[in-house]
Structure formats: C-alpha cells, structure tokens
Amino acid sequence: MNSQFSYLSNISIFTAKMLSKKHYLGILPILLIVLFVLWKLAQFVDINLYESGQDILSFIDLELTDEEADRLDRDFIPGIEHVTSLTGLWAIRFLLVAFFMTPVSLLAGRSFPLYFRQTIGIAAGFFSLLHALMFVFTEGLFPVFTRFELFFGFLAFLIIMSLTLTSSKKAMKLLKRRWKSLHRLVYLAVFLVVAHLVLLDQSWSIYAMLFGFGFFLRLKPVKKRITRIKSTSK
User: Fold this and answer.
1) What is the distance of C-alpha 86 from the center of its chain?
2) Which of 155, 166, 130, 158 is nearest to 34 (CA)?
3) What CA–CA distance (Å, rounded) separates 27 from 68?
C-alpha cells in the first residue's frame, strides 16, 4: 500500500510543477478529478513489489451493502471487475466531455483553449488505456477477437489512443490536412463505444442518449440554425 501512496505523491508533485505555468491553472479541475479517481482505484489495488511468492498486482473485493447485495444478487464485486468497470466508466465520461466541447463552443460563442481540449482528450485516452490493461491482465488478448462486444471496444480503444497521441500542436503540423481526417474518427469511436456498452448490457442508455444529442448538435443544418438564431438575437 505504501507504493500506492508513493505513486500518488509523485503525481501530486508533477501536478504542482505543471501548475507553476499560468495557463495550466485552467486544467486544475480536470487534474483533481483524475487524481480523485486514481485515489479511488488505489483502494482496490494492492501492489507487492518486495514480497516474493506473491502476485505483483492483486485486487481487493468491493463489499456490498445489504440493499445492493439483494439488488445484484451477490455479496461482493470482485476487485478486478470493479476497477475495470470504473476505468471504463471514466474513459466514457471524458470522451463524452470531449465530444461535447465543439457544440458547447458553438452555443457559447467561445472556443475552449487548445490545452484544455488536449487535457480532456488525454484523460479519456489515459483511462481507456487503464481499462484495456485491466482487461488484458485478467482475460488476455484472445477473447477480444472472439466476442463482438469486446472487439468493438478494442477498436474504439485503438481510435481513442491514436487521437490522444496526435493531439499536440506538433502532430497537427506534421499531419497537416490528414490530422482533421484522423480526428473525424471520433464519430466512429463514439459509435463503437455505444455498441460496446449495449452488447455488454451495461447501463448504457443515458450515455447513448447524450452521445446522440451530441451528434445532433454537430449536424450542419443544426449548427447553421444555431448560428442564425444567435446572430438575430444580438
């Protein structure tokens, strides 16, 4: 457990150094959310680096209340299942925020700073990576190619990681026109994520509706209509 707190301490030091630059103050809420989620995850992860004969990584089960146990028909949730679910949930949440940034900018008449958008995208990629690693750690890679719901999730993961790795200004300059084409794959990633959730029979409906609303706001006729309404209201 000491190694977990040491890891979180190192992250805090890194965060403090980042915030020494003025424009990084804008991403403080995002960093705090990420640190909070990592702290929650650390409560269910036990890292053994020095004790021989034990697994390096083990997970602590989540005990359920009587009401939750009756509803779910089990007394606890295996730690690895809880951690995998939680990392996937936050990957989807950050992807949802990233997807809504363009419509919100249109409605507000003001765009978000590039570094803010990059941070949201990196957070989505970070939790997507953790989610994939947790699955591969327990199930291996082979099941991904035997079940549609897992394969869709794997494809979404590849797209999200490619968008994360090319979110910098250097990547924009290097890829030029191809950068926009690549980042339009976010639409496919969103579709694959929703399909992943639907086929897994998770609590997907709210996210499907929100992503659907995001798609609606991004339609050209809708964007033109919003622009026209805003221009006439001035």
Assistant:
1) 10
2) 130
3) 35
Residue 82, Cβ density class (10 Å: 0-12 exposed, 13-18 middle, ≥19 buried): buried
Place of tokens 């199930």: 139
pLDDT, tens digit, 9 for 90 and up, residues 119-166: 999 999 999 999 999 999 888 889 899 999 899 999 999 999 999 998
Q: Which residues pair with 208 in a beta bridge?
A: none
| pLDDT tens digits for range 113-131 | 888 888 999 999 999 999 9
What are the Cα distances from residue 137, in Å, to 60, 131, 134, 141?
15, 10, 5, 9
State how far the alpha carbon of 232 is from the alpha carbons of 225, 228, 229, in Å. Answer: 11, 6, 5
Q: Are 109 and 227 in contact (CB under 8 A)?
A: no
| H-only helix segments in the chain | 2-18, 28-42, 66-72, 79-108, 114-139, 148-165, 169-175, 177-183, 186-200, 205-218, 220-233
Q: How far apart are CA 203 and CA 208, in angstroms?
A: 10
Range of the domain at 214: 2-233
- Spatial neighbors of 80 by CB under 8 A, at least 6 apart, are 59, 134, 137, 138
How many distinct structural domains can be found in the chain?
1
User: Is the model's pLDDT at 4 over the cut of 50?
Assistant: no
The pair of structure tokens assigned to 102 is 């363009």
Angle 189-34-8 from CA coordinates, rounded to 5°: 135
Cα torsion angle, 126, 128, 134, 140, sign: negative
User: Is residue 27 within 8 Å of residue 115, measured between CB atoms?
Assistant: yes
